[in-house]
Structures are given as C-alpha cells and as structure tokens.
Amino acid sequence: MEQGSLPERYLSRSVIKHIRRLNPKLSVSAAVGNDYANLHGSVSADGIGDTPWIAWVKAMNNFACSGGQIEGARLTMLLPGNVKESWIKGYMADFNSYAEAKGIQILGGHTQVSEVFARAQFVVTMLGTAGDYCANKKKIKPGYDIVMVGQAGLMGADIILKEKREELHTRFPDFYLDMASVKEDAYSIVDVARRIADSGMDICYMHDGSSGGVYGALWQMGVWMDKGFEVQHVDIPIRQETIEICEFFNINPYLLDATGCLFVVVEDGEKLVEYLAEQETEAAVIGVVTEKKEKLIVVNELEHRCLSPVNGDEIHKVL
C-alpha cells in the first residue's frame, strides 16, 4: 500500500464506513473532506507529522477549518528505541513554545517508546469550541466559486529542499535555494481561516491542503460536497521555485503536500479575494461548482482532465 495518508478508496470502505453514529449530538462527523469533528459545540481535530511543528500545524490547520476557537491540545509521541531523553526534552520545548505563542494549554497525552518505530512520529489533537461559522453543503449551488489561498506544494517542496539541498545544489546556486526556502510559519492557515470565518460573508465550506497536494484536497472537497467542479489549472497559485524543485526530482507539484493552502467555497469568490487582498493576503478564484458530478481540471480549451482519488503523496518518491 502507498505511503502517507490512507488513500480515499480504502479510507471510505474500510474505516469511515465502519464508524457507527451513536451520539445524536454529533453535528460534524468522520467523512472524506471533513477536517474536524463537532460534538455539541465541542470541536476536535488531529495532525500527524515526523516533527513536532508539522504535527502541530496540521492539527491547527484542520481545526481552523471549523471556524472555532482552540482551547487545549493533547500530544502523542511515538518514539524509536534509540531515543535519548535530551531529544524528548527538546520535543517538549518545541511544543511548549508553540503552545505559549498561541495561548493553547497542553492538556496531556501519551509517550510510547518502541523498537517497532523506525523514526519519531507525533500526533497532536486540538480541542476547543465551535464558532458561528459552520460548513453547510446544502447551501452550495452550481456556480459557486472555489477560492484558493496559499501556494501548491508549499510544505512538500520546502521539506524536500531541506532534506535534499546538496543534491539540488548540483543544479541550483545557493542564492536560488535560499530564495526557494520558506519560513515554517507559511505552513499555517490559522489566521486567514479566522479572518474568513469572521468576514461576514456566507462561507459554505473551508478545507485545508495537506498530504496528497492540491489535487488530493480538491478530490476530497468534491466528495464532501457531493458535487462536481471545474478548476482552471492555470489559476492554481504555485511558486516557480516549487515547479523547479519538482521538475528536478520528476514529481508532480500538484500531488505534493500542500499544507499551507486553504480552499473556500463561497457564492462570490471575487469579493472574498478582494477582502483578503485588503489584508495583504493573496488568494485566487480557481474554479466553480458545477451541476455535473465530474471533477475536472481544465488545462486548456482542448484538454480537460478528470480527477481521480489520489494515492499517497509525491514526497515519498523523493524522501
């Protein structure tokens, strides 16, 4: 089976299908395209990564798509047998710095050390309360816009750059690689999701990019909406540096971890883009919801590609 997040076909038929709904207070439950759960106004969302920051930011991003307020976090650390106590102290120092920066209380968690773990893995669960915004697929109609905030393949390209810099240096000079690197804060969509939720616009749905890239996120959106869409490939924001890094390793940047981007379904996408531009946040209308079920990427007038479920993430072809 492919490395990374479980492919949607397996997730749907072997995981989500078997989750029984036992509590009538559950308003947002497990489903493809759901980033969080809402139980009677209490929201939870998870993130996993092989560094504390990646797990933390993925959990925060998933929670941010609820429009709610984070109040606490639980941490799970799965550590290899050769782990040193100094490393564990370092991990906790990192987590504490993230928590203090956002005023989030660490509530506890679990730490497990075992030889079965080849490398450290971290799981963060964010807990909090729901806000006024609530995703509502019944509001979404053909003609509604899909807005994208952020850049395709941002986290994936940055991780590859950090891990494979010497190899990339055989083609690219230092100044270019320095320019290609991004600050880890760029992985977060928390602030922009909050501004969108509080904008007063009739936001129907927010979904963050993650493993599987832009195409993976768009596929999940279509499954959740139970509607089709047409996305203009040329309008998907992407850094030239990301394209160059992906061409070097012969991978698809639109299937590369897109943590740091946010997708929004709203009636008037241009109005939202203008609102965000006033706050110096770049966004673009990349597509539109359609009556048909097809999930289409429009490359040009002659080439329309049908999206299919994404299997894994391109980063695993490199690292």
Automatic annotation (TrEMBL):
Parts of the chain that traverse the membrane: none
Tree of life domain: Bacteria
Pfam family, one: AIRS_C
Domain PurM-like N-terminal span(s) in chain numbering: 49-129
Domain PurM-like C-terminal: 141-296
Family: Belongs to the HypE family.
Listed PANTHER family: HYDROGENASE EXPRESSION_FORMATION PROTEIN HYPE, HYDROGENASE ISOENZYMES FORMATION PROTEIN HYPE
Protein name: Hydrogenase maturation factor
Lineage of the organism: Bacteria, Bacillati, Bacillota, Clostridia, Lachnospirales
